[in-house]
């Protein structure tokens, strides 16, 4: 199998999967190293196809439902409140697409999250604890942005209000 054929199969698998697929799973399927798959995905992206890497694997970027709404919220809290924040968002029907911070040296740093369910929240929190990982918010005094996708703008507003009531939105001092 050529690299081009493998990349076509990767795109086909991602378009039909409906869930993230890992580089390790592709490597096993095609009998190549994980690094070969990482390179394949880089070439797919360079060709103009939107592939996002999440903690759960690769997903193909597709057009949003025309009625859905994408917006950003600016939050500020500590690590201990992360689960509360994420659970509140998904509990009200939002999807946490990513998190970003404005780093004083590197500029904007973004991490893809793709957190859609309470199970995703639990898995994320478990992974952070298991790896003793630091979150991006640690770099900026807890200030960070989330891109959210919601059914519509009114659901986005509801989520933003709930985050404010919980004391999780950034408040200018």
Walk me through the topology.
Elements: H1 3-17, H2 23-30, H3 34-46, E1 51-54, E2 57-60, E3 69-76, H4 82-91, E4 95-103, E5 107-115, H5 118-131, E6 143-150, H6 153-165
Antiparallel strand pairs: 1-2, 3-6, 4-5, 4-6
Pfam family, one: HTH_11
Organism: Vagococcus allomyrinae
GO molecular function, one term: metal ion binding
Short description:
This is Transcription repressor NadR. It contains six helices and six strands, in the order H-H-H-E-E-E-H-E-E-H-E-H. The protein is α+β, with helices and mostly antiparallel strands and 173 residues long.
Kindly describe this structure:
Ni(2+) binds at residues 77, 85, 144, 146. Keywords: Metal-binding, Nickel. Residues 73-169 form the 3H domain. Residues 6-58 form the Helix-turn-helix type domain. This is Transcription repressor NadR. It is a single chain. This protein has six helices and six strands. It is α+β, with helices and mostly antiparallel strands and 173 residues long. It has helices at residues 3-17, 23-30, 34-46, 82-91, 118-131, 153-165, and strands spanning 51-54, 57-60, 69-76, 95-103, 107-115, 143-150. 42% of the residues lie in helices and 24% in strands. It has a four-stranded antiparallel beta sheet with strand order 3-6-4-5. A two-stranded antiparallel sheet has the order 1-2. The protein is globular, with a radius of gyration of 18 Å. The longest helix has 15 residues, at 3-17. The protein has two domains: 3-60, Winged helix-like DNA-binding domain superfamily/Winged helix DNA-binding domain (Arc Repressor Mutant, subunit A, Orthogonal Bundle); 69-165, 3H domain (Histidine-containing Protein, Chain: A, 2-Layer Sandwich). Helix 2 (23-30) crosses helix 3 (34-46) and helix 4 runs antiparallel to helix 5.
């Amino acid at each position: 199998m050529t690299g081009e054929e493998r990349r076509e199969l990767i795109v086909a698998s991602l378009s039909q999967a409906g869930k993230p697929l890992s580089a390790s799973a592709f490597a096993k399927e095609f009998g190549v190293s994980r690094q070969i798959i990482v390179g394949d995905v880089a070439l797919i992206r360079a060709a103009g196809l939107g592939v996002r890497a999440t903690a759960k694997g690769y997903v193909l970027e597709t057009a949003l439902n025309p009625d859905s709404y994408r917006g950003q919220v600016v939050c500020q809290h500590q690590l201990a409140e992360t689960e509360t924040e994420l659970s509140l968002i998904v509990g009200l029907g939002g999807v946490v697409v990513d998190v970003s911070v404005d780093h004083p040296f590197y500029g904007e740093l973004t991490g893809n999250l793709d957190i859609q369910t309470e199970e995703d929240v639990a898995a994320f929190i478990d992974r952070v604890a298991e790896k003793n990982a630091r979150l991006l918010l640690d770099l900026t005094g807890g200030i960070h942005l989330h891109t959210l996708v919601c059914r519509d703008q009114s659901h986005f507003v509801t989520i933003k209000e709930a985050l404010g009531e919980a004391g999780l939105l950034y408040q200018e001092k």
